[in-house]
Amino acid sequence: MPNLGGRPATIARDDILRAGRELGMRRLSVKAVAVRLGVTATALYRHVDGRWGLERLVGESILAELRLRDDPRHDLERHLLSFALQMREFALEHPGLVTYLQLLFPRGDGGQRLLNTEVEALVRRGYEPAAAIVLSGAVASLTIAMTASEENSTAAEEADGDGLDRERQAVRDRLSRDDRLAGPSAALPEVPRPEYVRLLLTASIRGLIESCPPGRPVAEMVADLAATGEDL
């Protein structure tokens, strides 16, 4: 509530959290929350450690609502794909959250709970805890990166859909004039984004399972993944 005079407005951590969630992760900033609460930024610093503390407060509050479903009937590939798609769906429902996840994960209790949940699911499927952390982290990183690209594309469409359509058409026109690329690019099927994301995630997960099967020592897994990168 704005302060119209007299004593400074009193706010609590819960007020900051409420205002931050109303703004959403994409619009979140110390200044924006202070304006919404009718106080100075200094008032927020008594409760949160600047921008990083504010992001963590709001981001972890949102993550606390994500409950990963684990169907015991799913084999390893189906389980990891479900894990990735659940993360993607939740992130897209909360614009800006994926940027928070992309910077550093886990950053607080909400992210740590999710990591523990997934590690436990992989341990039930034959992995040692350390190996489960490596595998779940790899799948989460892939999912976060793909979702961030998807969200950026959506944001560009919302900001200037006509301009983006012109850019896409320019790309198609450029390819159509290329002797080598014109035919193959014209023959490519139109794949809706959800199916395209599922395709890429499935292929990536299969490759990770091949390199990181249950029962393999984590040191061997990490060395194999590192060697694969060096051979390229």
UniProtKB/TrEMBL annotation:
InterPro entries xrefs: Homeodomain-like_sf, Tet_transcr_reg_TetR-rel_C_sf
Domain of life of the source: Bacteria
Protein name: AcrR family transcriptional regulator
